[in-house]
Amino acid sequence: MLAIYVFILVVVVQRVVEVVIANRNAKWIKSQGGYEVGKDHYKQIVALHTMFFVSLLIEVSVIDRSFVLWSVIPLLVFLLAQMGRVWALSSLGRFWNTRIMVLPGAKVIAKGPYRYLRHPNYVIVVTEIACLPLIFQAYWTAIAFTIINAFVLSVRIKMEEAALEEATNYQEVFEKHKRFIPSSNYED
């Protein structure tokens, strides 16, 4: 049981480090003349992710599950998502954020996984929210938060795309890209 808590703690620490990086990047974007969109919506994102980990910890503590071999599948998918997360975040560099930060006139980055789809980081988040609980057979958390996350992202993505289309070359760069399904429509 201790290994489960340690694993979840490692993921939580990773998220805290990401928030620190995001805050640093937000400060830089603001210093360049950028601004934040959807501040109220960001509170929902923070609440969603906080409650996700609380729910996961409660479910793994209350429901006694034994290790099952098929847990390796969501574990491998989760670990692949972690590699994708690093790829997506490093591709955006200082422009990556957990908030919707816009720098007017900035050239939208379309390298790394962004060469193939508009929102690889959101695909990764969806994968993580579905797979992390499944590793530990926390089915209720996986189902409930996958549904809640889908709703929150449906609002966030529209807000983010509208802000980027208004202030950057987002539409021009991503007009042939799908939101979540990789495409080979990228042209250099």
From TrEMBL:
Keywords of the record: Membrane, Methyltransferase, Transferase, Transmembrane, Transmembrane helix
One of the record's GO cellular component terms: membrane
Segments passing through the bilayer: 42-60, 67-88, 122-152
MF GO annotations: protein C-terminal S-isoprenylcysteine carboxyl O-methyltransferase activity
Domain of life: Bacteria
Topological category with respect to the lipid bilayer: Multi-pass membrane protein
Subcellular location: Membrane
A GO biological process held by the record: methylation
Name the UniProt record assigns to this protein: Isoprenylcysteine carboxyl methyltransferase family protein
Species annotation: Halalkalibacter alkaliphilus
